[in-house]
Amino acid sequence: MKKTFKILTMTFCFCMVAFTVKTTAQTIIDQGTCGSDLTWILTDDYTLTISGSGEMNEGTPWLPHRDKIKTLIINDGVTSIGQESFVAHSQLNSVNIGNAVTMISSFAFTGCRKLTSIKIPNSVITIGTCAFFDCRLLTVNIGNSVKEIKYEAFAYGEIIDTFSCKANIPPTLYQNVFSTTHRLLIVPCGTLSAYQESDWGNYFSNIIEDCNSVNEMPRNKKIDVYPNPNTGELQITNYELRVKNIEVFDINGKKQKTESRKQKAEGEIVIDISHLPAGIYFVKVLTEQGEIVEKIVKQ
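User: That's the sequence. What structure does it adopt?
Assistant: Structure tokens below.
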């Protein structure tokens, strides 16, 4: 009797496991390619997963399912999101972008009105024209590598409550990136004035700093940038910190070409900015312990 009961119990458990596997496993309902080394798979829960390596093609090979796709997963290895790839995907409400994407192309997510939040990884450099045009975004988080956001990228339909940008140099904003003024912009520690004095200040009524980022220098930084105001020769004293790179940007976030960089003495670096026109600039100093941005005035 005990043996029979044991056999029945084991059989029941096996059936339950089999039932669980059967009910949780997703079925592939369509698949194809969307780049020379990229594939896409759509499962019956309407999750679209893109895998492989390289750039996405333009267009929408999953077009017959556009009005049913709910979740998008772009795996690491994909380096761009193709132009018009997800236009008017009316049910799309969740997007996970992998850490290799550097470009979100024009019109990529135009008209995705159920998409209420987006997190753009640190790898992304450019957000294309109308990339999120006519979306209903409430929260936007942009990584630290974005250099430019093109025409009307977040315009129309937006109801952004909180926009966070981790770039220490304010990304260049093309015309009408936003179509209205928004409530809150969160920027890296030490960059408040840079954002306020750039085009970003025209779109956000409240800009605050987030001083909890691990990528920034401690408050007791060991770097001085002087003289300020400056007439042509910029001196950077790094004391015991090892400087890895120095860049100079104008007030709109555009990188300016420096004429020379030389070691003048131990712990001191000289940058010639005499060729730059008078105005406000931002000096980005990257060290092994993090980075710091200082505002200077060129006379």
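The CA atoms of residues 221 and 273 lie 23 Å apart.
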